[in-house]
Amino acid sequence: MIWIFLVCALFCFYTFAVFPLWLAIRARGRPEFIRRPLKEYPSVSVIIAAHNEEANIPTKLASLKALDYPAHKLEFVFVSDGSTDQTVALLTEAQKTMDGLKFIHYAPAAGKPTALNKGVAESTGQVLVFMDARQRVSANALKVLTERLTETDVGAVSGELSLADDEGVESANVGLYWRYEKWIRLNESKLYSTTGATGALYAIRKCDFRPHKADVLLDDFDTPISILARGKRTVFEPDARVFDKAEASVNDEFRRKSRTLAGNFQSFSRQRWLFNPKKNPVFLQFLSHKVFRLLVPYAMLLAFLASMIGTGWFLKLMFVVQVLFYGVGLANMAGVKALDNKLFNFIKVFIQLNAASVAGAFRYITGNANVRWRQS
């Protein structure tokens, strides 16, 4: 039993600590991209899929108007996917005062992949920039993204999702998790390529776009991966920023994460070449970052069972440590006020996000993952 425990514990330690450190060491010293203004910027189409976004449309339009990019090279394509609120009315009114604004509306809602396909078909730009309807973006975002696309081996450029963490301790720890993720993606990008993009802000050349299947759950994974399959990199660009708030609670992040991880299972089943080291240029990081993360909850369970069943002082000690660890997390989930601090909330975040991996697998296996928009 001790060997089962040690293998499982080391597997988790490798996934969350050794791999990111190894990645950072390998990426250190790699030449940085020197960004320079272009003599002539390409035409850009901003594609935004929206469903019942009346609360966010005014702020989004204000953010788009503030973009620092040649106006005659810019168009905005909104796709209202079966919206039943004031989204269409707001966009109709905005067309009167905002140059380059287009929108499509259809019903019933068909899901984000269909909306993106329709938006791209309507676009005329050389570069496609995908955004969500909710978040503000930095004024320099389009220039930064298009400047990175001047690298001939770069096929997609992902912006940085900046999360405000002023909603309390729990939200702050969700934000801490995202900062950890960004650190990994930045080092992957320096080394060669990331295996996904920030769905709220990323850019590709229009010629590299491949229409999505109607049931795709992760367009921001499938698009960069399809580009990687054709020999081009996806890079992470922290100077292009999109601003959002961390989920107010770990329960909200759990729902979002379980859907994302269900999408990972879908993508893996359809993109099997990713598991072939001869075809996948980022095979080791793909396994370590994307696949091993999905296996960690089961390694945690095996480690717990091995320490519970096994004999000897070491396993008994490890069993007590794990009982305390999970007990603190579960008590925090139950709302015990005495445990509401950064350390114990971090344990809660760790447990729930790993539970989300199991929930994501269950959703995919049972067919309970779909492209319908989440209702608030």
Record keyword descriptors for this entry.
50% helix; alpha/beta; 376 residues; Spore Coat Polysaccharide Biosynthesis Protein SpsA, Chain A; single chain; 15% strand; 8 strands; eight-stranded mixed β-sheet
Give a structural overview:
The chain is of the alpha/beta class and 376 residues long. The protein has two domains: 2-16 and 282-365, no CATH class; 44-265, Spore Coat Polysaccharide Biosynthesis Protein SpsA, Chain A (Alpha-Beta Complex). Helices cover 50% and strands 15% of the residues. The protein has an eight-stranded mixed sheet, with helices on both faces. Strand 2, helix 3 and strand 3 form a beta-alpha-beta unit. Helix 8 (250-270) runs parallel beside helix 11 and helix 10 crosses helix 11 (342-365). It starts with a helix and ends in an 11-residue tail after the last helix. Residues 166-173 have low confidence and may be disordered.
Annotated CATH homologous superfamily of the largest domain: Spore Coat Polysaccharide Biosynthesis Protein SpsA, Chain A
Sheet with the most strands: spatial strand order? 3-2-1-4-7-6-8-5
CATH architecture of the largest domain: Alpha-Beta Complex
Number of helices: 11
* Level-1 CATH class name of the largest domain: Alpha Beta
The CATH topology of the largest domain is Spore Coat Polysaccharide Biosynthesis Protein SpsA, Chain A
Helical content (DSSP H or I, runs of 4+): 40-55%
What percent strand? 15-25%
How far apart the termini lie comes to 46 Å
Order of helices and strands: HEHEHEHEEHEHEHEHHHH
Uncertain regions spanning at least 5 consecutive residues = 166-173
